[in-house]
């Protein structure tokens, strides 16, 4: 009797270890181990993200509104096209449901939003086709501070320019004042690619005024590249901020 209990206990402990290993195994390894085809996973969406299965909307919470649209508030469903353990395409949906009976599909089920975001940023950093879609999917994750990963993408000159610009755009949308400082450093980098710098200027312009206007004024006054100065001035002109008006008056009276 005692022997049987010990054997059963050991077997049960072994089952726990296997289950725990399966849970903690990285998303990257799980995708790499999947056969060729489609790998699906689902994760929690941040507040304001909704969709109808085709289009994804990102907006402020409308709890106090009198109107509710036909837009499902998460979760996020991501489908990866995988070949030889490598991701070749990323598709993301909010709302709707997976079609049943599709061939060559590995469904990983629900994964933590943090793990999903970190994994998606990591595959974008590999410069794969569809990196922009991976970045977008990562920005939808709930309760994740994503801007440090986006900053690494933005500064990685080996990545496609469009991927870097996409990272900068979402960095400007998603991050706080710390991100504005980082965007400012990219915009002021005179050795950087001009289109990437212009994307950083635009991202700065999308931040709250107390963050964006001082940074844009610094660029408008001091940057060596006339195109960057023009972009900063343009976005200041859209701000309707008295500090921008004071700058324009100063620049015009010095002519």
User: How far apart are the first and last residues' alpha carbons, in Å?
Assistant: 98 Å
Count of helix runs:
11
How would you state the average pLDDT, rounded?
82
Q: How much strand?
A: 5-15%
Which residues sit in consecutive blocks of at least 5 with pLDDT less than 50? 1-24
Please state the structural category: alpha+beta
Question: How would you describe this structure to a colleague?
Answer:
The longest helix is centred in the first third of the chain and has 23 residues, at 2-24. This protein has 255 residues and is of the alpha+beta class. It has helices at residues 2-24, 27-33, 113-124, 131-139, 147-155, 161-174, 177-187, 194-205, 209-222, 226-237, 242-253, and strands spanning 37-43, 49-51, 56-58, 76-83, 86-94, 105-110. Helix 5 (147-155) runs parallel beside helix 7 (177-187) and helix 6 (161-174) runs parallel beside helix 8 (194-205). 53% of the residues lie in helices and 14% in strands. The strands form 2 sheets. A 4-stranded mixed beta sheet has the order 5-4-1-6.
Q: What keyword list fits this structure?
A:
two-stranded antiparallel ribbon, 53% helix, 255 residues
Helix-strand blueprint:
Elements lengths: L1 H23 L2 H7 L3 E7 L5 E3 L4 E3 L17 E8 L2 E9 L10 E6 L2 H12 L6 H9 L7 H9 L5 H14 L2 H11 L6 H12 L3 H14 L3 H12 L4 H12 L2
Parallel strand pairs: 1-6
Antiparallel strand pairs: 1-4, 2-3, 4-5
Helix pairs in contact: 3-4, 4-6, 5-6, 5-7, 6-8, 7-8, 7-9, 8-10, 9-10
């Amino acid at each position: 009797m005692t022997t049987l209990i010990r054997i059963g206990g050991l077997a049960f402990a072994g089952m726990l270890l296997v289950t725990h290993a399966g849970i903690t195994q990285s998303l990257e390894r799980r995708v790499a181990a999947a056969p060729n085809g489609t790998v699906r996973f689902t994760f929690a969406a941040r507040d304001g993200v909704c969709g109808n299965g085709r289009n994804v909307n990102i907006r402020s919470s409308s709890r106090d509104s009198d109107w509710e649209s036909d837009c499902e508030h998460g979760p996020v469903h991501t489908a990866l096209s995988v070949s030889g353990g490598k991701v070749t395409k990323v598709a993301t949906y909010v709302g709707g449901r997976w079609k049943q009976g599709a061939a060559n599909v590995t469904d990983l089920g629900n994964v933590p939003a943090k793990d999903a975001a970190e994994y998606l940023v990591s595959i974008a950093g590999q410069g794969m086709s569809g990196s922009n879609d991976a970045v977008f999917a990562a920005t939808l994750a709930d309760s994740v501070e994503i801007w440090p990963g986006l900053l690494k993408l933005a500064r990685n000159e080996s990545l496609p320019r469009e991927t870097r610009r996409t990272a900068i755009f979402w960095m400007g949308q998603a991050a706080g004042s710390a991100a504005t400082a980082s965007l400012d450093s990219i915009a002021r980098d005179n050795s950087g690619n001009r289109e990437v710098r212009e994307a950083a200027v635009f991202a700065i312009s999308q931040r709250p005024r107390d963050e964006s206007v001082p940074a844009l004024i610094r660029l408008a006054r001091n940057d060596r590249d006339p195109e960057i100065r023009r972009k900063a001035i343009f976005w200041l002109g859209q701000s309707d901020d008295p500090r921008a008006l004071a700058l324009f008056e100063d620049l015009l009276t010095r002519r």
